[in-house]
## 1
Amino acid sequence: MKDIWIKLATIDRRIIYLLVFLVVALPMIFRMIMPIRVSNEVKMAFSEIDNLKPGSIVMISIDYDAASEPELQPMLIAILRHCFSKDIKVILLGQWALGLPLGEMALNQVAKEYNKKYGEDYVNLGYRPGYTALMVGIGKEIRDFFPTDYKGIPIDSFPFMRKVRNYQQIDILVGLEAGATGDAWVQFAGARFNQKIILGTTGVVAPDMFPYLQAKQIVGLIGGLQGAAEYETLVKKAGSAILGMPAQSFVHLLIIIFIIIGNIGYFILRRRK
């Protein structure tokens, strides 16, 4: 029996890589679906947007790049579907320049699904340098930083943008975060201008955002692929997050099994020495 544990503990790493590949690939290939339990913080985020009236304005900040796309892009798509299904206007911008193409891809995809038109139902302002200065500046006059959209078209040529001067006309700010930009949104847009904020973050960032939620400095939190799957569940339209949850869950279980086997084999080998 001990020899079996030792063999398992010293198994060829190529077999481990193969098992990980199979555990990730098979659920995706067969499009397995698992039950999703929706957390309170995601329900809060969904309810805030769901309670908005048609014609309300949601600003979405793309603060991530391709490295965090698997977790945050499904959130963006689900939130856009939610907004467009309720005829809510969307302003998209970003603090990470490399993330803006991801935002544009999501806008183009979801706008086609709901027959939304650029300039009438949504606009992409793009990226401007400035970071915290930009966040404060939007609180005074958005045109100081964004006189035009990402194409160079004056924002006053878009009907719904003519009434947007600062945060007072923005009903909710949604920050999709792969780093510390969410902290800055809370500190500058939230604390200084009382802007309602929902944060969607990668799994590793989410725990740091819970103090803001508990202090009511944000009104909702969507954390990691799990959070994205929960939001897709509430929107009632499955996307890559729901499809990715079985693979993520199974590979986590496999890693735990590897850790247990490795530790048992280690202690048996140490006793023999």
Note: The chain has ten helices and six strands.
## 2
Amino acid sequence: MKEPDARTGPPAADGELIRFDQVTKRFGDHTVLDRLDFSVDAGRHVTLIGPSGSGKTTILRLLMTLATPDEGTITVGGQRLFPAGEKQVREIRKNVGMVFQQFNLFPNMRVLRNITEAPVTVLGLSKDEAEQRARELLDLVGLGEHLDKYPSQLSGGQQQRVAIARALAMRPQVLLLDEVTSALDPELVAGVLDVLRDIAHTTDITMLCVTHEMGFARDISDQILMFDSGRVIESGAPEKIFSEPEHPRTREFLGAVL
């Protein structure tokens, strides 16, 4: 597999890239995030684990501005994401890419255009520059020969790899991964995870990942955050969390999934 350009996104200053300060998010009477505090340093790979409904995906949706917090502040790259004006939010969003559980490809566009559409329309890249970048990324994810196909002509695993390439085409500072293998048949999971391992190990992009693939989390993460009831109850290096968890809820959760 071709090694990617390590300069995946714009240069990020050393230190903190993402910060949540006392963030609360409610859906009706249900509090999903409860005065959440956490941060992610530039270039780090952080994985969020915990039971379903603990607030992990909500964090990613807030960073993508698909939801808004009820209380608290969120900053990305030292700039306020919430609360902030619409123009500032749009500018920050350019530095955040996300790969969803469902591939969300445009069914009426060929693979190449699925990847070039946003860089041309949002970033203002020329068609030639966007296509060159798209071809490099398709080589990276092992799909260089499929650029003229439509999504319906690809397997689920191939569609998810196109979605990864599409997110990287925007050269984000941070890549958000939301259970990216959960919609795939078991035999297709390994190929997608291998692509993400390569990206994690050969680029400087910051990654914030939600997954139930604990082996993958151990392989790619610098830090694991254990969530329960909308809060981080334990954090640490993968070796510590998976081998010597301290919190009883962490031990209970890992005992059920490992």
Note: The chain has two domains: 17-95+173-256, 107-171.
## 3
Amino acid sequence: MFRLVFQKSDLAPRAIAGPVIIGRKAPADVLVADATVSASHCRLSPRDEESWTLEDLKSTSGTFINGRRVSQAVVHPGDVITVGKQNIVLELTGGPTATELMLGVATMYNAAPVVAEEPQAALVLVSGNFSDRVTTLKKDVTSIGRGADNAIVLRDDTKASSSHAIISRAGSKWFITDAGSINGTKVNGQRITSETALAHGYQVAIGEQVFQFVVKGAEASEKTVPSSTQELPQLPDAENKSDNAGLFASHDDWRKADPAPAKSSGQLVLVLIVLVLALVGIAGLLWMSGVLKF
């Protein structure tokens, strides 16, 4: 017999024997009260005596196994399924717990404890009244909205919805999805209607806030994620914007810089006259002293 164990939650473990749908509301079999979870988020079906098949049901925020986003995958006892902000562990009842299974694998391979990597990206406030100028994205799924249960709470933004948008990470790639907001989510000025990839330097507009998405290690800078407001990247002025304009000036921008002013022809003529007079004077002195004879 298998069961689902909810980590850091008041939900009791749920025994499962056949296919179940995990979601926010009925007809889902396993209900998770989380605004970032879709109504019917994913389906878990028995595969054999030791494993299950997990299928994402076109959810808004995605389905993850052990931190990896999947559309369909095999789940074994001890694996962690993430839907929205909730982590769920598949356990085999009567056998070792999820924690014991994970410790056993680490001991088998003499592996060191898994250490979470430092944040790889951040949102930098370009305009708006949000209190944090730099917000690091520490989790695989980050919810944004006016509601207090979001990871990024835009409490004072009247144009932001309670659940406005979700930023998710799949490996080294980042995505943003509008969570059914009233006023929409924009990326580089365009309102998005589906999951949209984010890249270093992209602008994200949510409510009255405009953020810039920056990635640590991006080629534009060795230190992309600012640690203070003094290190905030500056956007180019609209009047000077070129096709290559971005978070930092490009080599083409440097080539377009005004060249040093050339000296006028009048100045060159004056210098030549002075040199000729000097030579004539020196020759005259040498002739008068008898050193130079014509």
Note: The domain at 2-92 is CATH 2.60.200.20 (Tumour Suppressor Smad4).
